Amino acid sequence: MSGTDQRFVLANERTYLAYIRTALALMAAGAAIVQLGDILGGEGQTLIVGTTILAVGIVVAVLGYLRWRDNDKRIAADLPLRATPIPLVLGLGVVGLGVLVLVLSLI
């Protein structure tokens, strides 16, 4: 049997879907924060935090797609996958936004 091992293709697809779930969660959280008005010390601050979280969700969706597409091509060509800093950057970004929301909600 020759060709691409479909388990790798399906694993790549599951990873992409995880990116999409993360993006949707961030976009929902951002939209909810924007709709809540002035819960973070003022309407302007709340709008900035909410739209930032929403924008991060959009970026995660795009990056997830680009990562899936690159991996899909490399799997089909039987090439090694490239390392990516996306999970580290995403994790640090979520922690940073969480700390920001915590600080603003306590002020």
Automatic annotation (TrEMBL):
Topology of the protein relative to the lipid bilayer: Multi-pass membrane protein
Top-level lineage group: Bacteria
Q: Where is the DUF202 domain?
A: 7-72
- Coarsely, its chief localization is membrane
Q: Which residues cross the membrane?
A: 16-34, 46-66, 86-106
Record's keyword terms, sorted: Membrane, Transmembrane, Transmembrane helix
Question: What are the subcellular locations of this protein?
Answer: Endomembrane system
- List, alphabetically, the InterPro entries matched: DUF202 (IPR003807)
Descriptive protein name: DUF202 domain-containing protein
